[in-house]
Specification:
258 residues; 7 helices; 27% helix; 20% strand; binds NADP nicotinamide-adenine-dinucleotide phosphate
């Protein structure tokens, strides 16, 4: 990520770049990570985006991309020691708690600057009927009737014991066992409110289950549920590691990095 004419590497505002370090390792898999990769690349900042490799056909970000796990904290620590990025931006999904914890531990071990980019969670407005759950298993215990499950393919097994109809919507088919009354809907957002209203009406959905992912890409189901008077069970986010600076938007991340 270095070379003649290479752009100035990102650094803390007003701080000096750390010796022998350059570029950004961007832990991705989210829309925000792709937006940040585009913005940094446009500013001439060398970015290497990292994807877990979960999706068969991922939307690729701008700039360089690597795919696959690092091998836990030891693997990421070795990787950071060998590649010496100036900064790691953890822009993984709010529920990718394993990667977030690994990034915090490996960055601390190698003295690598770490910034967490995490979009704010959703907030209920007038007319919303939201019920909060601490886990997918807890959410499964709070629903009955026809359930619209939008929590993604991982963890679907928590709902395998539900007796009724369960619409399972995800990008790729889940590997977990599905409930006996499952209807699998393979689709990639964003979805419009009109789409979500039509789907919920067609299947006579009684309750929606979602992670508190935040952001606009998947929020239409919440609007549709409110309009139809349907409750939403929201799974709370896992906590963030202590001591890691957090920004809530791509703009804030850019302000810190450039
Ligand atoms: P996770 O449980 O936190 O991570 C499990 C392992 O997957 C990590 O320990 C790491 O393997 C690998 N990994 C995760 N993110 C990676 C990345 N960006 N680059 C390289 N390796 C990565 O993560 P997850 O919940 O399975 O999510 C996987 C990916 O999907 C993340 O990138 C996340 O942003 C995206 N995503 C997740 C959700 C969700 O609801 N969890 C939703 C949308 C998108 P090693 O230990 O071998 O390094």
């Amino acid at each position: 990520m270095t070379g003649p004419g290479a752009p100035r590497p990102p650094q803390a505002r007003g701080g000096a770049p750390r010796r022998g370090r350059s570029g950004v390792l961007l832990l991705g898999g989210t829309g925000e990570a792709r937006e940040l990769a585009t913005a940094l690349t446009a500013r001439g900042v060398p970015v290497l985006s990292s994807l877990a490799g979960r999706l068969a056909d991922p939307v690729l970000p701008a700039g360089e991309v690597r795919v696959g796990g690092f091998g836990g904290v030891p693997g990421l620590t070795d990787w950071l020691g060998a590649h010496r990025p100036e900064v790691v931006v953890d822009a993984t999904h709010p529920f990718a708690a394993g990667m977030t914890a690994n990034a915090a531990a490996a960055c601390a071990a190698t003295g690598t600057r770490l910034l967490r980019l995490q979009r704010p969670g959703w907030t209920a407005g007038p007319g919303d009927d939201w019920r909060w759950a601490d886990s997918l298993a807890a959410a499964a215990g709070m629903v009955r009737g026809t359930v619209f499950l939008t929590t993604g393919r991982q963890g679907v097994g928590a709902f395998a014991g539900l007796p009724g109809r369960v619409l399972v919507r995800c990008v790729d088919p889940p590997t977990d066992p599905l409930p006996p009354g499952a209807v699998l809907l393979l689709a990639r957002g964003p979805f419009t409110v009109a789409d979500e209203l039509a789907l919920m009406r067609e299947h006579a959905v009684d309750v929606v289950v979602s992670k508190d992912s935040g952001g606009h890409m998947t929020a239409a189901k919440l609007d549709a549920a409110r309009q139809l008077g349907i409750p939403v069970v929201l799974v709370r986010r896992p906590p963030l590691p202590a001591g890691v600076p957090v920004v809530g938007s791509v703009e804030e991340a850019l302000a810190c990095l450039t």
